[in-house]
# Entry
Amino acid sequence: MSIEEIKVHDFQLSMIWVETIFDFIEENPPNLPWSFLGRDYEYEENFEALKQNEESLCLKLPGYKGDKQLKLQLPWKHLAGQHFWAYYLFGKKGSININGKRAWEALVPFRGNVPIEVYSPECLGQKGYLKLESFFYPHGIALVITARCRNQLSLQGTVDTAFGLRKGKLLR
# Structure
């Protein structure tokens, strides 16, 4: 089989941006809705509340007009079949049952929505998608943009699509 004959039917690309914000763990953190991340007792309290409740922790975003809110939840909620957190915390597959103190010590983030609309570019195919996720750690935040392409592409087309997504040329 030649390289021109190779067809890729499904690929996923995740791009991760991380910002370290030590202000959260300073003695006098800024007055932000998520400042609780930098205090072990507040982090643990919010973690335990989320563990007991199916509802998200809703935080009003400063500077946003309207009713846009940041909705935080535990990072493994609604992820059937995903075992990352079990391996991260325990080194093996299984259920996740930890308390807020252990989560704080292991630097477990809260998963948040990203309150903006995104549109999947046509190049991803009819069943492809673009997904934004945010993670809030005691020492910073992370944004993950995941593109899932379900289009039949040549190997070169796959590479071009991945680089186009990475450089923002295929996004609107």
Notes: The chain has four helices and eight strands.
